[in-house]
Amino acid sequence: MMNRLDSVANEKIKSAVKIAASSKARKETGLFFLEGLRLCRDSALSGTAVRYAFFTDRAYERFTQDAALICSKAREAYLVSEAVADKLSLTQTSQGFFCICEKEKSEPLSSLDSEGKYIALENIQDPSNLGAICRTAEALGIKGAILCGCCDRYSPKSQRAAMGSLLRLPVFETDDLPREIEALKKRGMKVYATSPDSSARKITEAPMDGGVVCVIGNEGNGVSESVFALCERVTIPMQGNAESLNASMAAAITMWEMMR
Amino acid sequence: MMNRLDSVANEKIKSAVKIAASSKARKETGLFFLEGLRLCRDSALSGTAVRYAFFTDRAYERFTQDAALICSKAREAYLVSEAVADKLSLTQTSQGFFCICEKEKSEPLSSLDSEGKYIALENIQDPSNLGAICRTAEALGIKGAILCGCCDRYSPKSQRAAMGSLLRLPVFETDDLPREIEALKKRGMKVYATSPDSSARKITEAPMDGGVVCVIGNEGNGVSESVFALCERVTIPMQGNAESLNASMAAAITMWEMMR
Question: Whole-model pTM?
């Protein structure tokens, strides 16, 4: 028999709402919020530590097997009223599945495989871009993402755009990307920085054998000067009047060329 | 001396708000709404017929040259109050530039260059995807987009995501994509349909010389069976647990391979 939480005034529910809404609350608690059958199931399957799982009665009845799987991984699981689900949900049509999970520590960059292909994201600020890039990275077989100065990868928007990939793809966080690039180069990796500058080397002509990192920069300003100073610039040749590709499209083509 | 429209109750302003908000109003009037310095300037530069241009005094003073360019192309131009700008604006921080433009007729598919590279979008429903794909198409040098059953390319969201590309890229609309594909094949074009099915031909192995059309399908359901029946299926090889690439990422990689 599962426990019930039917009041929106319950402390666990109020805390979950805060964790969904605020990066600060996620930082303070070390927890993050997931919504929807798919993401909650992905969290259970990926080995993410699930602190609390919440289901509406309808969700539990309709998707009993999935709910049971999530329960088996969750430290605590509760049935909740529709009113609680409305309070928790960030979508217009809630599926009635919610989890509060524990953030994972960033992996140390020293554990990165110096023969592998990685994407580095510098100051990506749009959570939909961050999520979509990581989803594409996983789909194409990129080994991991190095993040510096990006928006919160644990925000509901990032997690939703990633469709579960952020729960599985190895992520390395750093606040000093130039220092890490120097270390990766010493380990024999090629490090390229993408640029819209047409005088940069065409990405089709850049060697992609062995360990490679490609840096994608901020949506508006591109890669920082201090990173450019350490990397060979590569570019996706463009035509027409479009000033540039958006960051996630440039990242998709870049990763495709790395893995092609 | 420019005319002024300072009242939010003015009929032109009320009509502009409707055109911004509703696909039905855009259909009935044949007009669409653009917001922001860049899109309004792009409309003037691209030869789009500008019916009305609206500027706040601040916008006009700060960007006089751009405003004068837009005025020179607009049939009517007005200075508006900040209250009117707040009423018109769909963004949190309005730049004070607005245009009401005339939709362009779809180009007839018979005018398509049978030696060129084109993207076909079937039932793309997310305006951000539609806009981002067309932006990428223009940047990569794709000659035009064939649209069937897609969301409104004239919605403010589509136009914003396209960053002006939808004002320049040739667009061909059809409500019978299978019939058009048959006609294009008769003209000697290769027509490929993208699929997540790993048994499809790898996109890297599909000949891309001469005239080529690649079809990208709906975000959830992919390309329709009736289109698949007429096309060779091509796929972007995937790894990892991600079930698929999102439609705009798949389109970016597909167009890149067409132009590479």
Answer: 0.92
Secondary-structure breakdown of chain B: helix, strand, coil percentages, each rounded to the nearest 5: 40, 25, 35
Q: Does B252 touch chain A (CB under 8 A)?
A: yes
d(CA B134, CA B144): 8
Task: Give the Cα separation of B55 and B71 in Å (integer).
Answer: 10
Rg, Å, chain A Cα set: 20
Query: Is the model's pLDDT at A243 over the cut of 70?
Result: no
- Any chain B CB within 8 A of the CB of A163? yes
Which of A117, A134, A136, A143 best tests the B interface by mutation, with the highest count of B CBs <10 A?
A: A136
Q: pLDDT tens-digit profile of B169-202?
A: 999 999 999 999 999 999 999 999 999 988 999 9
Nearest Cα residue in chain B from A129: B249
- The residues that bridge with A222 in the sheet, in sequence order, are A218
pLDDT digits (tens, 9 = 90+) for B194-253: 999 889 999 999 999 999 999 999 999 999 999 999 999 999 998 866 667 889 999 999
